[in-house]
């Protein structure tokens, strides 16, 4: 008999799989997982067909097609006034999650510590644990999910190797401002600490706010990995294409790991994205307005409900507080009640914590949906 010892013994099926399965079983409206229920831009789909017909069906370079890397560099040059080298500082990855994983594996060693702000994306901590390091969870301050910088200062020690930032933030929609970045810079200025900045919702930012990338701060330029997602930006989450940008020294060690985690991304998808970006710059320019209109429509539909909300500042998620409805129920229980009795499915925010606050009564809903879906969801929730 063989003995198998799991490296992640406490890791079960993700909440996203659980809630989507529940939605399917109950034939319920699914606003849990973060993906659009509307089609991708027709020109992008045509670009994919064209790429396959034109022969872009074999292995891409391991670091990604240069055409797509160059389009990405132009985006950062336009928005952040950054001069990024597409050869030495950009790698195209099959999704953002593998970029996050590879960055952690590249620079974090056994017994190091990595600071994670909770609630947090569920891949961060397992990626840290798999290298033998220790995730240090710091809960954000409710209700606006801000950072308590005194707690961060107290948590930093000689073992701290990385701090993971996520802005715009999933699952809360919070967005870091300049003061947040300056506070971080001050704390790590003279320390050997790497920043991993998860910026997959970089273009989904509302109410006139500006997305500030880690790379836009000179003090962080040489010590930051920035990870992004084309799937979020172009409504094609199933295409699983993302990127990592970092200074040459960091990118070198990133690629040393990445080349063995995944040989290359999907070639025709990369070519389609690159051609679409070159020919349709208006897509990204209009994206914030597009999603803000959906957020506003969903929230307006809830104006007479018993749920309370703070409008999301970014991403395509809106949290709803149900304290006035069933304060006696934990959020997982409230999700089950909504699914079984009202045929609508959300994500309980507590699952994004190592130790959720006792009084947390928040549910996350995805508003990357057709207007008819949002109207139906608001009608259901207003009757709760």
Automatic annotation (TrEMBL):
Record Gene3D superfamilies: Aspartate Aminotransferase, domain 1, Type I PLP-dependent aspartate aminotransferase-like (Major domain)
Cofactor: pyridoxal 5'-phosphate
Alphabetical keyword list: Aminotransferase, Pyridoxal phosphate, Transferase
Xref: Pfam families: Aminotran_1_2
Gene Ontology MF, one: kynurenine-oxoglutarate transaminase activity
Residue intervals of the Aminotransferase class I/classII large domain: 29-380
Chain segments annotated as transmembrane: none
Domain of life: Bacteria
InterPro entries per UniProt: Aminotransferase_I/II_large (IPR004839), Kynurenine-oxoglutarate_AT (IPR051326), PyrdxlP-dep_Trfase (IPR015424), PyrdxlP-dep_Trfase_major (IPR015421), PyrdxlP-dep_Trfase_small (IPR015422)
GO cellular component: cytoplasm
PANTHER family cross-referenced by the UniProt entry: FI04487P (PTHR43807:SF20)
Family: Belongs to the class-I pyridoxal-phosphate-dependent aminotransferase family.
Protein name according to UniProt: Aminotransferase
């Amino acid at each position: 008999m063989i003995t198998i010892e799991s490296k992640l013994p406490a890791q079960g099926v993700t909440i996203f799989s659980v809630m989507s399965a529940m939605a399917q079983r109950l034939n319920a409206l699914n606003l849990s997982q973060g993906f659009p229920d509307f089609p991708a831009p027709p020109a992008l789909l045509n670009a994919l067909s064209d790429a396959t017909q034109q022969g872009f069906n074999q292995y891409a370079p391991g670091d990604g097609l240069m055409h797509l890397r160059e389009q990405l560099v132009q985006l950062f040059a336009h928005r952040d006034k950054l001069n990024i080298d597409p050869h030495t500082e950009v790698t195209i990855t099959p999704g953002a999650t593998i970029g996050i994983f590879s960055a952690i594996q590249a620079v974090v060693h056994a017994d190091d510590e990595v600071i994670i702000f909770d609630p947090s994306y569920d891949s961060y901590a397992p990626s840290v644990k798999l290298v033998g390091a220790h995730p240090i969870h710091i809960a954000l301050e409710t209700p606006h999910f801000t950072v308590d910088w005194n707690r961060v200062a107290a948590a930093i020690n000689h073992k701290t190797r990385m701090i993971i930032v996520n802005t715009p933030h999933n699952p809360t929609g919070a967005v870091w401002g300049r003061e947040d970045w300056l506070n971080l810079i001050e704390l790590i200025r003279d320390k050997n600490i790497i920043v991993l900045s998860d910026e997959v919702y970089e273009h989904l930012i509302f109410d006139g706010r500006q997305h500030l990338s880690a790379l836009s701060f000179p003090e962080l330029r040489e010590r930051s990995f920035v990870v992004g997602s084309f799937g979020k930006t172009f409504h094609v989450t199933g295409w699983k294409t993302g990127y990592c940008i970092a200074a040459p020294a960091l990118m070198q060690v990133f690629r040393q790991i990445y080349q063995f985690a995944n040989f290359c991304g999907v070639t025709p998808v990369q070519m389609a994205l690159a051609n679409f970006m070159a020919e349709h710059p208006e897509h990204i320019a209009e994206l914030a307005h597009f999603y803000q209109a959906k957020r506003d429509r969903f929230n307006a539909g809830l104006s007479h409900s018993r749920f309370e909300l703070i409008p999301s500042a970014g991403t395509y998620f809106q949290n709803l507080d149900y304290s006035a409805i069933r304060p006696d129920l934990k959020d997982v229980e409230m999700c089950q009640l909504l699914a079984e009795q009202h045929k609508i499915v959300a994500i309980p925010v507590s699952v994004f914590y190592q130790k959720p606050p006792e009084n947390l009564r928040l549910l996350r809903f995805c508003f990357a949906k057709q207007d008819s879906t949002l109207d139906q969801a608001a009608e259901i929730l207003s009757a709760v």
